């Protein structure tokens, strides 16, 4: 066989249906669940980071006010 024909046969058999091999079905857009835009994810992430930072600062201020710890 020629080199080109063996490649075409291997690509044909790889893309064809084989028993026991399950092809992936669709993309994340087809999946069920919460659908939110990347902008919303970015805003929610920044809000979470801000909230954790605020808790850290308030904890430092509370600890300094009470005189507990180093």
UniProtKB/TrEMBL annotation:
Lineage: superkingdom: Eukaryota
Keywords: Endoplasmic reticulum, Membrane, Protein transport, Translocation, Transmembrane, Transmembrane helix, Transport
Low complexity composition-biased segments: 1-18
Localization, UniProt: Endoplasmic reticulum membrane
One GO term of the biological process aspect: intracellular protein transport
Main location: endoplasmic reticulum
PANTHER family per the UniProt record, alphabetical: SEC61 SUBUNIT BETA
Protein name stated in the entry: Preprotein translocase Sec, Sec61-beta subunit
């Amino acid at each position: 066989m020629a080199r080109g024909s063996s490649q075409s046969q291997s690509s044909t058999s790889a893309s064809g249906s084989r028993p026991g091999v399950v092809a992936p079905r669709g993309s994340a857009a087809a999946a069920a669940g919460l659908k939110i835009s990347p902008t919303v994810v970015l805003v929610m992430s920044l809000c979470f980071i801000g909230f954790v930072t605020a808790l850290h600062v308030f904890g430092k201020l509370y600890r300094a006010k009470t005189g507990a710890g180093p």
